[in-house]
């Protein structure tokens, strides 16, 4: 199955700043997905990123807070803007690879202080 | 939209015993149901999946069963080993939404004690 590289793996950021997370897939994929996972919790979908169009955001997530880029079929970025401590979480990108299942990136552990 | 419920939230088993995790889904049109294993500090990894035209699928010590009528599916782990300790997530693909979009269950923390 495909390999998804995600960076940074972790970061500690000051409140009010922004962090951009990058994901690189080693093959072309139609859709990429960005998830947030609070400690000990399940995966919550933030948005779906399709190349060549604006990302589709889930309820509770907005483009101004989580702008996404999808410049080509192997790459995507998620920016967490104007961060507050409530944004501390693990952020995961993913894509459908192989037959049907997701492959996840290694995750970004974000701490906002 | 799709809603996936997963039980139990925690499961402790003795090494060698079996573990069963159950999930129910709400959208009868959902047609693909993967299971993911997430070890501490690592990314979720697909361990087994099943499509709606199949009732059971097995891969060595793990198996998944699907009851479309009742809208539930289960993960079965036999002869559990300490390395099976992890959080397991079930998921259902939302066929009414963008292709590839999943709804995840809340997760089950499995602890296998030697």
Quick summary:
Chain A has 113 residues and is mainly β. Chain A is built from no helices and 11 strands. Chain A has strands at 4-7, 10-13, 19-25, 31-37, 44-50, 56-57, 68-72, 75-80, 89-96, 102-104, 108-112.
Chain-wise SSE layout:
The complex is a heterodimer of chains A (113) and B (114).
Chain A: E1 4-7, E2 10-13, E3 19-25, E4 31-37, E5 44-50, E6 56-57, E7 68-72, E8 75-80, E9 89-96, E10 102-104, E11 108-112
Parallel strand pairs in A: 2-11
Antiparallel strand pairs in A: 1-3, 3-8, 4-5, 4-9, 5-6, 7-8, 9-10, 9-11
Chain B: E1 4-7, E2 10-14, E3 19-25, E4 32-38, E5 45-51, E6 56-59, E7 62-67, E8 72-77, E9 86-93, E10 102-104, E11 108-113
Parallel strand pairs in B: 2-11
Antiparallel strand pairs in B: 1-3, 3-8, 4-5, 4-9, 6-7, 7-8, 9-10, 9-11
Global geometry of chain A: globular
Distance between the termini of chain A: 37 Å
- Oligomeric state, counting identical vs distinct chains: heterodimer
N-to-C order of helices and strands of chain B: EEEEEEEEEEE
Report the sheet with the most strands of chain A, covering strand number, pairing sense and barrel closure.
7 strands, mixed
State the secondary-structure class of chain A.
mainly beta
Which stretches of chain B of 5+ consecutive residues score pLDDT under 50? none
Count helical runs of chain B: 0
Beta strand % of chain A: over 45%
Helix/strand order of chain A: EEEEEEEEEEE
- Structural class by secondary-structure content of chain B: mainly beta
